[in-house]
Design a protein that fits this description.
The complex is a heterodimer. Chain A has three domains: about 90 residues, no CATH class; about 130 residues, no CATH class; about 325 residues, no CATH class. Chain A contains 22 helices and 14 strands. In chain A, the strands form six sheets. Chain A has a three-stranded mixed sheet with strand order 4-3-9, with no helix packed on it. In chain A, a hairpin with a 5-residue loop joins strand 11 and strand 12. The longest helix of chain A is centred in the C-terminal third of the chain and has 20 residues. Chain A is globular, with a radius of gyration of 27 Å. Chain A starts with a helix and ends with a strand. Chain B is mostly helical. Chain B has a two-stranded antiparallel ribbon with strand order 2-3. In chain B, strand 2 and strand 3 form a beta hairpin. In chain B, helix 3 packs antiparallel against helix 5, helix 5 packs antiparallel against helix 8 and helix 7 packs parallel to helix 8. The longest helix of chain B has 16 residues. Chain B is flat. The N and C termini of chain B lie far apart (about 45 Å). Classes of the chains: A alpha+beta, B mainly alpha. The interface between A and B is large, with 66 and 42 residues.
C-alpha cells in the first residue's frame, strides 16, 4: 500500500508539465527564454554578445530584431509565431523588448582586415550550401519552413543553417530529439567528419583480430566530438575527462545475420556460426566463451555512454598460439570492462589507446626503449594538430643525459621529439596489448584488448628517465607534459593522471585552433597548416583566415561549445564566397 | 635577357605573395549529395543508374561509408545489406573516405554515363519532363528553364538544341556540382 502510493506520487511528478510544479515567475528576458524557448533554441542561453553577433537581435532596436519579430503578438509584421504551442503574456513581451532596448553592445568585427566575399552567394544559395553539407539534401527539401523564412528575409542564412544543427540535438538519453531523415543525416555526417579526424582505425592491421570490429567501434573517438556538438550538456572540456566511452544508438528494421568484417574472395561469415572466446585451449579442451554485446548496427539515431560493466572479459592472454616457440601464451585474470578507459576521456579511451599503442602483444613498458610513443605522437598530432618536434633544440638541450645508454637521451636533436613523447607516454605505462584468446577463426572470435596493470603505490618512481626498468609498468603512471605551444609558451608540467593531461591540453590554444581548423576544412575545403599561427609573414588572405580561426578558437575556449566554431565559420565572408575566397579591401 | 630578368622578378614577386600556410581544394557534391539532387530531378527510378555509376564508387565520388550502418541479412543464402546507403563497397576502409569530394576525370566520365542513361531511360526522362513541365514550355523557354533547374539563378550557356542533348549537357557540367 505504502509502496504503491509512493510509486503513484513519483509517477505524478514525472508525468506532469514542469511548469505545473515550478512556479515560473520571470524577472527578465532570460527567464522567459529559459522557460519558453531554450528547449528548441539552445542558442538563447548564450551571451548577449553572441546573440548580437549572430544577428538574432539588433541592440536597441526591437522591431528590427529577428528574435523579437518572431514573438507572438510583437506587432512587428514579422512571422510572430513563437513559441509555437505556447503563448506569451504582455509582461513577457515587454521584458524581451526592454532587454533589447537596453543592450549596449556593438557588433565590432574582431578581424582587423576588412574583406568581402568574392562572388558572394545569395542567402538562399548559402542555405542550400550548408544544407547539402549537413543533411545531403538541398535547403528546400531539408527544411521548407526555414527556407520560407529565409525567402521572406525573416532570418539570415547562418541562422537557418544553425537551425539545422539545432534540429539534430540529442536528448538526455542521447537520442535525436526530432528523429527524421534530415536530423539523422546531420548526425551521421558529423560522426563521419569527426571519425575522419583520426588516423588509425583498423584492428585487423594492428593485431590481426578482425573479430574486434564486432565488439569495439573504431569510430569511438568521433562519438566524443559528435556528442559534444549535439548534446549541449556535454561540453568540449568533457571530451577530455573521465573513463566512459560512447557508442552509437542505432535502430534497424531487420536483425543482422552476418559479421561485418569480410575477407576478399570469401563469403561473409554468419553470426550464428561464431562465438566469442577467451583464454587458452589447454590439453585439447575447448576455449571458454563469453557474450559481449555486439556494436549496435542500423541507422544512427543517437550517441550514448556505454554502460559500465556491460561487457567484462575475465581473462586476457599475452601471446598468440603461433608464437608458442618464442613466447608461450599465459592466461591473466583481469575481469576487465572492455569499454572503460584510463581517464582523460577520449585520450585514454580503450579504443584510442588500443589503436595507437604501437607496441607488441604482451610487451610491458620499460621506461626506456619500450614506450607507447605512438600514442603520445598521435595525441599531439590529432588533438593539437602539431607535428613533432615542438620543443626547440635550445630547450631540449637541458634534458640531455650523457650518462644514458639510450642514444636519443644523449642527443639534443633526438630529444626535441623524445622529450615531448616519452614522459607523456609514461601516463599509459600500465597498459599492455593483449588478446581475449590466443587464437581465433573456425567459428571462434578473439579480439584485441588492453590489459591494465594495477599500479603498485608502494613503488616509487625510481629514476625519472630510466634506461630500462623492469618494474616500470607497475609504478604509478605519472608523467610530464613538456611542450611548446603555438604561442611559443614553454610548458613543463608534472602530470599524474590522464584527466590532468586533458586539462593541460585544454589550457593551450592549440587544441581549440586545431579543432577550428578541422571544421574550416570540412566546411570550405581550405586546409590550414598550423604554422599559420606562428609565422609573421602572412599574405592578407592568410591573415584573414588566421583571424577567423583565432576568433573561432577563442569562443570555443570561452564557451566550450563546438556549435560556436561552426557558427563563426558559417557567418564569415569566406563561407559566402562562391569559391570560398574573399577580396581584401 | 631583359625578358628573363623580368620573368624572374615576376616569378619571385608571385612567390612572395603566395599563400604558404593555406591550400584549397574545391568541394564538389559527394556521392550522397549528388544522388539526392539527381533523384530529385529524375525520380526514384534513377536510383538504378545512380547506384551503379555513383554510389558504388566512393573512391571517385567520395563520402565515407558507415561500417555499423550496414545490416546484412541472409536472403537465399546471400548476404544482402538492408541499408545500402551505408554500404562499404570497397571494404571497411571506405569508412575513412573524405566527405568533401574532389573532381577527377573518371568522375566526369561516369557522370556522362549517368546523365545519358537518365535521358535514355523512359521513366526517368519522363519524370524530369513532368516534374518541370518542360513540354508545356515555349521553345525559347526550354533552354533557360533546364539551366535553371540545375543552376538556379546562375548563368550558364549551352550549345545543344534538342531537349535530351540539352539535359545531358547541363547534367554533366561541373558548375552545379560545386558546393
Amino acid at each position: 500500500m505504502k509502496f504503491t502510493s509512493i510509486f503513484l506520487f513519483l509517477l505524478l511528478i514525472c508525468s506532469c508539465e514542469k511548469s505545473y510544479f515550478s512556479n515560473y515567475n520571470p524577472k527578465n528576458a532570460k527567464d522567459v527564454f529559459q522557460e519558453k524557448c531554450v528547449s528548441c533554441h539552445s542558442y538563447l542561453e548564450k551571451s548577449d554578445q553572441y546573440l548580437v553577433q549572430m544577428e538574432y537581435v539588433k541592440a536597441g532596436v526591437p522591431e528590427k530584431s529577428i528574435l523579437y519579430r518572431f514573438l507572438k503578438n510583437s506587432h512587428t509584421n514579422g512571422p510572430e509565431n513563437m513559441p509555437p504551442k505556447d503563448s506569451l503574456s504582455k509582461k513577457e513581451i515587454e521584458m524581451i523588448k526592454s532587454w533589447i532596448l537596453n543592450l549596449n553592445l556593438s557588433t565590432q568585427s574582431s578581424s582587423k582586415i576588412l574583406v568581402n566575399a568574392n562572388n558572394p552567394l545569395t542567402e538562399l544559395e548559402l542555405f542550400n550550401r550548408c544544407s547539402l553539407q549537413l543533411t545531403n539534401y538541398t535547403g528546400i527539401e531539408s527544411n521548407p519552413k526555414i527556407y520560407e523564412n529565409l525567402k521572406l528575409k525573416n532570418i539570415t542564412s547562418t541562422q537557418a543553417c544553425l537551425q539545422i544543427l539545432e534540429n539534430s540535438h540529442l536528448s538526455i538519453k542521447g537520442m535525436l530529439k526530432n528523429k527524421n531523415t534530415f536530423s539523422k543525416q546531420t548526425l551521421l555526417t558529423f560522426q563521419k567528419v569527426h571519425n575522419n579526424w583520426f588516423n588509425e582505425w583498423n584492428f585487423f592491421v594492428a593485431m590481426s583480430t578482425w573479430g574486434t570490429f564486432e565488439i569495439l567501434d573504431p569510430g569511438s573517438m568521433g562519438y566524443f566530438f559528435t556528442k559534444s556538438l549535439l548534446d549541449k550538456e556535454f561540453t568540449f572540456r568533457d571530451i577530455f575527462k573521465g573513463k566512459r566511452s560512447f557508442e552509437g544508438i542505432r535502430e534497424s528494421k531487420v536483425e543482422p545475420e552476418f559479421l561485418l568484417y569480410k575477407f576478399k574472395n570469401e563469403k561473409r561469415y554468419k553470426i550464428k556460426d561464431y562465438r566469442f572466446v577467451y583464454g587458452l585451449s589447454e590439453n585439447g579442451k575447448e576455449y571458454k566463451t563469453w557474450n559481449p554485446k555486439r556494436v549496435p548496427t542500423g541507422e544512427l539515431i543517437g550517441v550514448k555512454a556505454i554502460p559500465v560493466k556491460r561487457d567484462v572479459v575475465k581473462i586476457l592472454v599475452n601471446s598468440k598460439d603461433n608464437q608458442k616457440e618464442i613466447k608461450p601464451a599465459v592466461e591473466q585474470i583481469v575481469n576487465k570492462d572492455i569499454h572503460l578507459g584510463l581517464g582523460g576521456g577520449v585520450l585514454g579511451s580503450e579504443v584510442y589507446i588500443n589503436l595507437n599503442l604501437g607496441q607488441e602483444l604482451g610487451r610491458s613498458m620499460d621506461g626506456g626503449r619500450i614506450q607507447p610513443r605512438i600514442w603520445a605522437k598521435s595525441v599531439i598530432k590529432e588533438f593539437l594538430c602539431r607535428d613533432l618536434p615542438v620543443v626547440p633544440i635550445t630547450k631540449s638541450e637541458i634534458f640531455v643525459n650523457l650518462n644514458s645508454n639510450l642514444p636519443f637521451r644523449k642527443n639534443k636533436s633526438c630529444m626535441s621529439c623524445h622529450i615531448t613523447m616519452d614522459p607523456m607516454s609514461y601516463l599509459v605505462r600500465n597498459v599492455e596489448q593483449s588478446l581475449s584468446a590466443d587464437a581465433g577463426g573456425d567459428g571462434m572470435i578473439h579480439s584485441t584488448h588492453l590489459k591494465f596493470y594495477q599500479s603498485n603505490t608502494s613503488l616509487k618512481n625510481a629514476d625519472k628517465f630510466p634506461d630500462k626498468d623492469e618494474l616500470f609498468h607497475l609504478r604509478p603512471a605519472h608523467g610530464k607534459f613538456i611542450y611548446q605551444d603555438i604561442r611559443g609558451n614553454f610548458i613543463n608540467k608534472n602530470i599524474k593522471t590522464l584527466d590532468d593531461l586533458g586539462s593541460a591540453l585544454l589550457e593551450t590554444d592549440d587544441v581549440y585552433l586545431c579543432t577550428a581548423k578541422k571544421y574550416l576544412n570540412f566546411l570550405t575545403g581550405i586546409n590550414v597548416n598550423m604554422n599559420l599561427f606562428i609565422d609573421k609573414n602572412l599574405t592578407k588572405q592568410e591573415l584573414y583566415i588566421r583571424n577567423l580561426l583565432e576568433e573561432a578558437g577563442r569562443v570555443l575556449k570561452k564557451n566550450g561549445d563546438l556549435t560556436d566554431v561552426i557558427g563563426v565559420i558559417l557567418n564569415s565572408e569566406i563561407y559566402r564566397g562562391k569559391d570560398f575566397s574573399v577580396n581584401i579591401q | 635577357m631583359i625578358l628573363k630578368i623580368f620573368l624572374i622578378l615576376l616569378h619571385s614577386s608571385f612567390v612572395i605573395s603566395a599563400d604558404q600556410h593555406i591550400s584549397r581544394s574545391k568541394i564538389y557534391l559527394n556521392r550522397f549529395q549528388l544522388s539526392n539532387v539527381l533523384m530529385k530531378h529524375f525520380g526514384p527510378e534513377s536510383n538504378k543508374f545512380i547506384k551503379k555509376y555513383i554510389m558504388k564508387r566512393p573512391s571517385i565520388f567520395y563520402g565515407a561509408c558507415d561500417i555499423y550502418g550496414q545490416v546484412y541479412q541472409n536472403i537465399n543464402g546471400q548476404a544482402v545489406n538492408y541499408y545500402p546507403l551505408s554500404q562499404c563497397y570497397s571494404g571497411l576502409n571506405g569508412n575513412k573516405i573524405s566527405m568533401n569530394a574532389k573532381l577527377n576525370k573518371i568522375r566526369q566520365a561516369l557522370m556522362l554515363k549517368t546523365c545519358i542513361s537518365l535521358v535514355e531511360d523512359k521513366s526517368t526522362y519522363n519524370y524530369f519532363l513532368k516534374e518541370y513541365q518542360i513540354k508545356t514550355l515555349k521553345k525559347d523557354q526550354v533552354t533557360k528553364s533546364i539551366i535553371k533547374i540545375f543552376y538556379k539563378d546562375r548563368d550558364y550557356s549551352m550549345k545543344s538544341s534538342n531537349i535530351k542533348d540539352l539535359i545531358v549537357e547541363v547534367c554533366i557540367s561541373k558548375g552545379w556540382q560545386r558546393i
